[in-house]
Amino acid sequence: MAAVASFVDARSQGGRWLVRIEDVDTPRTVHGAADAILRTLESYGLHWDGEVVYQSRRIALYEDALRQLGGSTFGCGCTRQDPVCHCAEGLAGRVARSTKVRWPDGEAFTVKRADGLFAYQLAVVVDDDAQGVTDVVRGADLLDSTPRQLHLQRLLGYRTPRYLHVPVVTDAHGDKLSKQTRAPAIVPGDEAALRAALQFLGHTPPAGAPALAWAIAHWDPRRIAADTR
Length: 229
Ligand SMILES: [Zn+2]
What we know:
Elements: H1 2-12, E1 20-21, H2 33-43, E2 53-54, H3 59-69, E3 73-76, E4 98-101, E5 109-112, H4 120-130, E6 135-139, H5 145-156, E7 162-166, H6 191-200, H7 211-218
Parallel strand pairs: 1-2, 6-7
Antiparallel strand pairs: 3-4, 4-5
Bound molecules: zinc ion (ZN).
Zinc ion binds near residues 76, 77, 78, 85 and 87.
C-alpha cells in the first residue's frame, strides 16, 4: 500500500521514486527478503530510480550524525526493568548502554541501542537528507515517529521533507496486515490486488484502463479517506 501510494504520488509530480532497504536491524534481517521485495515491486510495474540503498551499508553516516548530535544526547543505563528513564540527569553510577536524544516536548528517545545498532529514527533522517528526499509517503502506522524525526532534522540542521501518511490495511481486529499478524505474502504482479490497493486509496481506475498509469494521471491525495474502516 505504501509503495503504491508513494510511487503514484512521486510520478504524478514528475518526481523520482527511491527505494531504500531499511535493514539497519541486522539480526532481524532475513536473508533474501530484500531481493524478494524488489522482485515484487518490479512485478507491479513499480520501477525505482537510481541505486537501491541498503541501510546496513551506511553505518559510517549514522556514526557521523550521532557525533554531530553531541550535547543533545545522553547515555542511558536503563534496562527493560526500568519503568522510567532518569538518565538525562545523570547515570547514578550505572554504565551507559544506549544513547538517547533529549526531547523537550516528550520522553527522550533512543538513537543508538544497547546492542550497538542505530535506531530506525536516526537512520531514516540521515538517509532522507543524504538522498535529497523532498516527499515522504508512508503508512499511518509511522505517524508516531514523525515528530521525533522532525526533531532530529532540526538538531542536525537538515531540511524537513513533506509528509503524507496513508491509512494502513487492517484485519477485523484493527491490526495492520503484516508479517507480524501473519498476513500471507503479496502475490507478484496481481492486477486485481493493484486495483484494490488504488481503490483503498480513493482512486478507482475504470475497467480496461492501465491501473497504474491511470492513477498517476488522476492522483489526488485528498481522495484518500482518513478512516477506511
Ligand atoms: Zn535511562
